[in-house]
Structure to design on (136 residues):
């Protein structure tokens, strides 16, 4: 089975990302581009996590689907297909080395919202999870 996925995206709370970035638009563009699985991006941001919890529902195989009442209707019939979401995020590790600032970004994936909340709570104790583009 061939599968196209985009697992490294961001939310509207990330710097330089569109305010129109939401689950409905991600689903629509996934259909238009033939992408079957899309990472949720930035699930560690509290406002984005809340929106994901409101708009996604658990589907088969630990993936999520956009609630049926939110599915886009402005997609040509030949593009309509199921788009699933995988809860994903990114941890940015910033450290000095040899007089320069180094940055390593690690993609993270969790199987459900319970795990997302637990990880977010732990990360909040050691770094900022609330900085966002809306405040910049």
């Amino acid at each position: 089975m061939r599968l196209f996925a985009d697992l490294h995206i961001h939310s509207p709370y990330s710097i330089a990302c569109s305010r129109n970035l939401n689950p409905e638009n991600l689903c629509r563009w996934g259909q238009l581009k033939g992408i079957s699985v899309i990472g949720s991006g930035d699930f560690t941001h509290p406002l984005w996590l809340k929106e994901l919890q409101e708009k996604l529902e658990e589907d088969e195989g630990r993936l999520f689907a956009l609630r049926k009442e939110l599915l886009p209707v402005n997609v040509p019939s030949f593009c309509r297909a199921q788009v699933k979401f995988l809860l994903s995020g990114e941890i940015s590790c910033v450290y000095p080395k040899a007089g320069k600032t180094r940055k390593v970004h690690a993609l993270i994936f969790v199987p459900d919202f319970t795990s997302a909340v637990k990880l977010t709570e732990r990360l909040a104790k050691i770094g900022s999870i609330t900085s966002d583009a809306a405040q910049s």
